[in-house]
Write a structure and sequence with these properties.
Number of helices: 13
Structural class: mainly alpha
Helix content: over 70%
Shape: globular
Length: about 270
């Protein structure tokens, strides 16, 4: 295994560990890649290895997804939930398709900005975690479509690297009346179409730029992302129920600060 493949394995591990927690997997991948000297064609590696994280959550939630599919013909509640997920996905699908080039060529290259967004997002998440909020919704199956759409609008903020897709959706959900556990779980469900759409769009846009060696590195990163993602998905909801989101907020602040110091020292 050559050095590039080893770096790909490390980045895949980072992707799986950070994708479903509110710390911004993209920021971690871009910062790690920057300081390790790793660069993928069109910044595609960071998006394409998300397939491993997608399959991780699908494998953990397979039984629940299967039951949901079987209930669709007879259950209005199941149909309402699926419609809510699709409504929440819609804003990111539209904006992501229209702004794909700008996001990849400009925002993904702004390393210092990513660090500042990590810190700012950590401060905001810490403030929200300490608020005495009274939840109105505690079950994702009961989220009304209007609430789901608003959470989807919050998700669009995550197109700025460092914001965190899960962080934006969870923070928005909490401020709009959900409890912590169901907010994290709704973020899981919303991740499935969102990440799958981002993967498909990026593969379509950059497939011709990828060489065979790139595909090997992506495959290794995908495997590591899958393994780490399964571990995180299986444990996150219980962790959040016990500890809230403050540990992730402090982690964001620490990583963002370390990134700024690293940029100041080595560029």
């Amino acid at each position: 295994m050559n050095e590039t493949t080893l770096v790909g394995a490390l980045l895949g591990l980072i992707e799986g560990l950070t994708e479903f927690i509110p710390v911004s997997s993209t920021a971690h991948l871009l910062l790690a890649g920057h300081f390790l000297g790793f660069q993928s064609p069109g910044n595609s590696f960071e998006v394409l290895i998300q397939l491993g994280a997608i399959l991780a959550i699908l494998s953990v939630y397979f039984a629940r997804l299967w039951k949901l599919a079987m209930d669709l013909p007879s259950s209005a509640r199941a149909r309402r939930f699926v419609a809510a997920i699709l409504l929440a996905f819609l804003p990111a699908a539209v904006i992501g398709a229209l702004a794909h080039g700008f996001i990849k060529s400009v925002l993904f290259e702004s390393t210092a900005m990513i660090c500042w967004v990590l810190i700012g997002g950590g401060v905001i998440l810490l403030m929200i975690d300490r608020m005495k909020l009274t939840p109105k919704y505690t079950n994702v199956m009961d989220y009304p479509p209007s609430l789901a759409f608003k959470i989807g609008l919050c998700q669009c903020l995550a197109m700025i690297p460092g914001t965190s897709r899960s962080g934006a959706t969870i923070a928005g959900a909490l401020l709009m009346g959900t409890d912590k556990r169901s907010a994290a779980e709704f973020s899981f469900f919303l991740a499935m179409p969102t990440m799958a759409g981002a993967f498909a769009l990026d593969l379509y846009k950059n497939y011709d730029k990828l060489a065979q060696d790139d595909m090997v590195t992506i495959a290794v990163g995908f495997i590591m992302a899958f393994i780490a993602g399964v571990i995180v998905v299986r444990s996150l909801l219980d962790f959040v129920s016990r500890h809230g989101f403050a540990p992730f907020a402090w982690w964001r602040i620490g990583v963002g600060t370390a990134g700024l110091i690293g940029l100041w020292l080595v560029g």
